What does this fold into?
Amino acid sequence: MDLKALAKKTFLRRFVLWPAVALAVYAIVGFFVLPPVVKSVLVKRLSEKLNRPVAIRAIRINPFVLSARVLGFSAEDRGGAGPFVSFDELYLNFQAASLVRGGPVLREIRLASPHVTLIRNEDLTYNFSDLLGGPAPAAKPSGGEKPFLYSLNNIHVIGGNVDFDDRPKRTRHTVRDLSIDIPFLSNLSYAEDIFVKPLLKGDINGTAVALEGKTKPFSPSRETTVELDIRNFEIPHYLEYLPVERKFRVPAGTADAQTVLSFSQPAGGSPVVAISGTVTLKDLSITDRNDSPVLRLPSLSVGIGS
It folds into this structure.
């Protein structure tokens, strides 16, 4: 056999045929094999963990851009009593850096048309109280365990809806057309391109609400800020909705807050989410369960550095 022909055949087999076969297998596994397997595992595990019927219409995976789509997710309330959580699509775009950074790195997360149904029962429990679990386990002494690392970037929530049925008060609250944009949530010193600004927009009980971040020009840390101005926040009214047992009561008290929430990416450093400003408590009263006074505070103003 001609040595040149043999060398050419070996070259084609080693550098063309085998890579092409490997690429084809990778594509077939990613596009056609993994989606049904992942769907089956997710439905089974989530149904067990949530103790609720879970359904997923389809899962799409693109192995070349490292993206995944979860389509038509729904979780019924316990015993199938009604809707609990659903969404049309969850899009996740992973980065190859996840393999070397020790935690998931996502370039973009997009959640489309989520719908949550919350119910406060007559006994003041919620339809999700069973998911909160028992008391937190005692903290273990630090033994050099590394924290869970992650970098979640460009987070979008689009077209969200919330229905809250407050049965003890015979009233309902609704949130419609909720949009939330979060630039990043991260504890990794990994810089990803950020193309969203903080945003909170929606219709709450018929009232339009909108908060939008502002990007600081010429900022080396790519800082975006949101101003939060809250006046006469009725602490007792909202405290009673906390789904945890309390050993105290708050009969009275209001809060004012003038704060700035900032998202920044220092060059070469870890992304930072920080809050600064002033919080003022007025006419605060705290009692124990038997209504015996514990604390009375006419006024307290606290400055938050960062």
